[in-house]
């Protein structure tokens, strides 16, 4: 069977790129699919993650103003689809244009849309203006129109079902990226967070919580790995909160597993998520997590008080208290770490990828 994945780019260090690298590798190497990937403006850019050598890539450029870009995108998209002649197209594009690929291409085959983010991804402020809310509402009405044209609309969590309320919706979780042979000993005085710096990831909230943690335990350090965004001004906030000596920011690294192995607590302060891939990565290394119960993902992954802590979204003080509890209660930390490893077995590729295989075959039959 011939699959065509339609994306923007796969060279970044984000969760979508990591998931695609795992999923396409299994489908091509273990299940025997002929897998094609379409990208835009990726020529000459190296891949951050390791993709299978069996994959076939199709890249084209789209530049200029909005109209010029759209016309070039339309032309490139149609050309790739005509060249590949896929049995199934799976669209991994969270932008508005991704919802209308069936319209742009005339829907020559069965089509799946993969939604990897929450609707809340559009938010750039905790207090949106009337105009921004109106714009967002119009955008999502258009997305719903496009979503109904797909044969299946795949989301990552049960919470996403309530967001979209579609008849063609289906939940398939992300697969675990790796199965480490060794877990963290949980004896290093390090708390870890992984993800790009942006409003959605809520690092401003994390730093305010860390101020309380750092005051109680100044010998513990917080390390944040992810694409640096100077506009977020997190270094300045750390200085203002007088926690700059206990917190460090780092650019993405390929071997993030080594950082999980040295962490004793993992924290996720996101305002919203599509899934929370980093949670299952940390848990696979036996690291208990403290996460906001944001829309959507953490509640599907963490059982509060058993393999981690879920905190009401935005409750900075409780978030800090849960970190402190894990720091001060080593037996509890290690018990939760063991439970966390067990939980991640639910997300093993051997469990998740067959669900995709079943979906593809059901659409073709």
Automatic annotation (TrEMBL):
Gene Ontology MF annotations: glycosyltransferase activity
Domain Glycosyl transferase family residue range list: 181-342
Cross-referenced Pfam families: Glycos_transf_1 (PF00534)
Superkingdom as given in the UniProt entry: Bacteria
Protein name: Glycosyltransferase family 4 protein
